[in-house]
Design a protein that fits this description.
Elements lengths: L10 E8 L3 H12 L8 E2 L7 E10 L3 H7 L7 E11 L3 E6 L4 H16 L12 E6 L13 E5 L2 E6 L7 E7 L27
Antiparallel strand pairs: 1-3, 1-8, 2-6, 4-5, 4-7, 5-6, 8-9
Length: 202
Amino acid sequence: MQAAPADASERARLFIALWPDADVRAALAACGERWQWTAGAARVRPERLHLTLHFLGEVPRTLLPRLRPALAVPFQPFTTTLSRAALWRGGVAVLEAEPVPAKMRQLYAALGEALRQLGLPVEERPLRPHVTLARRAGASLPPPEPLRLRWPAQGYALVESRPQPEGGYVLLQRYPEPGAVEGRRPSVAGRSTNPEDPGNSG
């Protein structure tokens, strides 16, 4: 007899990301305003904008006490430049980081090794850092003028994507900042937001 599937509350949908401060978030949102969006484009709300480093998917909550300290890898601040607006296959509108900073590659590799040590799968595809601005963007047009959005990264975060009716992203831990605030929900004026699949997001 097959075992019953684990209750959804026993698993957490997780990803590791660069999480923008207020200034970077405002700049990202302003870049989105420069696109010419088609009527059906599903734009990402400003409070949900981020740059994914690793998507973990569904992880047992019992692993969190080991996962959280394991992700505290060596980190050196760096600046990444989002310099290319692009429309990917499937109608995903993004801002791409070009070139990829060496320190970002080092962070990506160190986090990947930490995940492997815990027996978690790690994508084998090369790092292609980006911020997702919209999905179902169809024939939307990126801004014709060049972009150069500088993002000074002072750390990274472990984030949970929660389903409805709660919804939204929850920051479980920031790195390497001491005294990380656990369970703080990114929001605007205290409103939580609906979840989106971070597996395809930036």
